[in-house]
Design goal:
The protein is mainly beta and 623 residues long. The chain has helices spanning 2-11, 17-23, 55-61, 67-73, 146-149, 430-434, and strands at residues 49-54, 77-79, 97-99, 108-112, 115-117, 135-142, 156-162, 169-179, 183-194, 197-208, 217-228, 234-248, 258-277, 280-299, 308-325, 331-350, 357-378, 383-394, 398-409, 415-426, 446-459, 464-484, 487-508, 513-524, 534-542, 547-563, 566-582, 588-595, 614-622. The protein has a 22-stranded antiparallel barrel. A five-stranded mixed β-sheet has the order 1-6-7-4-5. A two-stranded antiparallel ribbon has the order 2-3.
Length: 623
């Protein structure tokens, strides 16, 4: 096993052309993609560290959730897990995403086609709803994205771009997979295009008994998108996503639970119009994200079941208007206005009589923002300079200014050097402001300043791509609970410093062999939960004819899984993916994946053992 790990780590300085695209820090966004708020059309000109994971990698992974794929493909990104299936919400939940050690408390913003995704009352992300089915690619910005997205993008952003029909006709795929712990996964996705009209429809169903007794999980997801090109200059569209999940939680080995479950119903919808006029491009988007949740917090094995259920409804809704002007050569000036209204309602209901309510709470907040971002290329775009500022006003905390600046130098063919400085912030959520004993309605936003330098070099005609990023993060005003006059109270008192570096490499060796790796090192000024100090991912791909084999190695060092008591975890996993495609009029692919081949014992959340070796196999039909 030691030799095999060494082989993987050694080969890992190279990758496939597909992997090379995933590790690239900038790509041209196709015109058909709607992202909001506005971005300059060429993200390669942004002085930010961006990873793009395309549909090839997503499909090859055979994962139904996007989060495990992001952990493998994006250096510096980590996600908590508590078992084989399902992340859940409420006490003991998993799915917390951090980038470079910043993320807890919803400091990394997830979006679907530019639409923000988070729960209105507690401000948390919605990990079980980020499914891989029907996704064209994922854009991950490492570092503050608050200039474009405002609050909750303090540590970075993850924009999920859904697939859509680009050519006339009908295309799609259907997949069924079965595996360990009586797990079943079904997915179907279809794109239709006829002239100026297009439609995309997808659905997914996952269910599993989980790797521990009492960890059953069930999820259904439905998506529909309509697009219409009214003219060569205007495009309109709408989409709706619905998700239903139920996740059971057996607690930790130290504090087991019975009857603990969460039942979530989520929905999102948006409408948009885009314009394309050569030197002027932009649009408007209106959206709403809503949810209804029920939670039974369970009971200890020797205690009586609770006599009530926790209920909540939440929403965030708003609109964005944006325009990008290309007034002269090498210039982009982006202007935008955002408005968001968010909030929710929660209460307890008696199990004996659901009409009886208690502990009822209802509140909302409004935020409006304007931003401008300008960039200019010089000397044939050898030098590009970028700067922007955002002013966000909240009905709760007042005004927040967000500056960002940077430059890109391309001294040689295939090389680039980036420097960026930016501010990110997170507004306090309703729980921190108004709910429970520590509530403090006078809280101000948390914020950080991020300084980053990155280098990227492409060699051998683009077959070899390598990158290095160094960063320094200075966090202020962190919301922490302190004892004030003998009582707990949320206060803006915390500070932190994170610094580190990341490297990645990708190389297409020949038409059959390829390999890739990414490594991240994180140093924090204090122990930080769920943020590994060292993270190494490597993979080797082999494509002989109609077969495709992928061997992955995932290694974590110095992961703090518990603060009290202090517990650390090191582990290394080896995973195998194998697929065979019958090339015919209707291609059929048979696949199998084996995770944790050497049956390693480890946990990411203290007291929640992860599964040993697991198997999944299935079939996929493309049409």
């Amino acid at each position: 096993m030691t030799n095999l790990k060494f082989l993987l780590s050694s080969i890992a300085i190279v990758a496939s052309s597909a992997a090379a695209e995933n590790l690239t820090d900038g790509v041209d966004l196709p015109e058909a993609v709607v992202t909001a708020p506005a971005k300059v059309r060429n993200v390669e000109l942004l002085p930010l560290d961006v990873n793009v994971i395309d549909s090839t990698v997503i499909e090859r992974s055979a994962e139904s959730s996007l989060l495990p794929i992001l952990v493998n493909q994006v250096p510096g990104l980590f996600v908590t897990e508590r078992g084989f299936a399902g992340y859940g919400v409420s006490g003991g939940s998993a799915g917390a995403v951090n980038i470079r050690g910043v993320g807890q408390g919803n400091k990394v913003l997830f979006l679907i086609d530019g639409q923000p995704q988070w729960a209105g009352v507690f401000g948390h992300s919605l990990p079980d709803t980020y499914v891989a089915n029907g996704v064209e690619r994922v854009e991950v910005v490492k570092g503050p994205s608050s200039l474009l997205y405002g609050s909750n993008a303090m540590g970075g952003s993850v924009n999920i771009i859904t697939s859509r029909a680009k050519t006339d006709g009908v295309s799609g795929r259907a997949r069924a997979m079965f595996g360990s712990f009586t797990t079943e996964k079904f997915a179907v996705a279809t794109n239709v295009r006829k002239g100026r009209f297009g439609a995309s429809v997808s659905g997914q169903l996952d269910r599993s008994n989980g790797n521990r007794k009492g960890s059953e999980f069930w999820l259904a997801n439905e998506f529909i998108q309509l697009q219409y090109s009214a003219s060569d200059n205007w495009e309109t569209g709408a989409n709706v996503t619905m998700s239903q999940t139920k996740a059971h939680n057996p607690g930790t080995l130290q504090s087991p639970l019975e009857n603990m479950w969460t039942n979530l119903q989520r929905g999102t919808a948006s409408v948009y119009a885009k314009n394309h006029y050569g030197k002027v491009n932009g649009g408007v988007q209106g959206y709403i994200n809503w949810g209804r949740n029920k939670v039974d917090d369970g009971n200890a094995p020797d205690a009586a079941p609770r006599d009530y259920l926790f209920n909540s409804t939440d929403y965030n809704m708003g609109f964005t208007i944006y325009e990008t002007l290309n007034m002269w050569k090498g210039s982009d000036i982006s202007l935008g206005v955002d408005f968001v209204h968010w909030g929710g309602h929660n209460w307890n209901t008696s199990k004996a009589d659901p009409s009886q309510r208690s502990s009822e709470f209802r509140e909302h907040e409004n935020e409006v923002a304007g931003y401008v971002m300008a960039q200019q290329g010089f000397f044939g775009d050898i030098l590009s300079v970028n700067a922007g500022v955002r002013l966000q006003h909240s009905s709760q905390y007042g005004n927040e200014w967000v500056p960002q600046a940077g430059f890109i130098v391309k001294p040689l063919a295939g090389s680039s050097v980036k420097f960026s400085f930016g501010k990110g912030f997170r507004a306090p959520n309703l729980r921190e402001l108004y709910l429970y004993a520590p509530a403090n309605p006078d809280l101000k936003p948390e914020y950080l300043y991020n300084y980053e330098v990155s280098l990227r070099q492409s060699l051998l005609g683009g077959r070899l791509n390598m990158g290095l990023a160094l960063y320094y993060i200075d966090g202020k005003n962190m919301i922490q609970t302190q004892r004030i006059d003998g009582r707990p109270k949320n206060m803006n008192t915390g500070e932190f410093t994170n610094k580190g570096f990341e490297i990645d490499a990708a190389y297409a060796i020949d038409s059959r062999w390829s390999a890739g790796m990414n490594y991240s090192y994180l140093h924090t000024d204090r122990p930080l939960l769920s943020a590994p100090k060292n993270k190494l991912n490597a993979e080797v791909n082999f494509r002989p004819g109609d077969f495709h084999f992928t061997l992955e190695s995932n290694t974590i060092w110095s992961l703090i899984t518990s603060e009290e008591p202090l517990k650390k975890q090191d582990y290394s996993l080896l995973n195998l993916r194998a697929a065979y495609t019958m090339t015919s009029r209707v291609p059929v692919t048979y696949s199998i994946k084996v995770d944790n081949i050497f049956n390693k014992h480890y946990d990411i959340i203290y007291g929640c053992p992860m599964p040993g070796v697991t198997f999944m196999g299935g079939v996929e039909i493309k049409f």
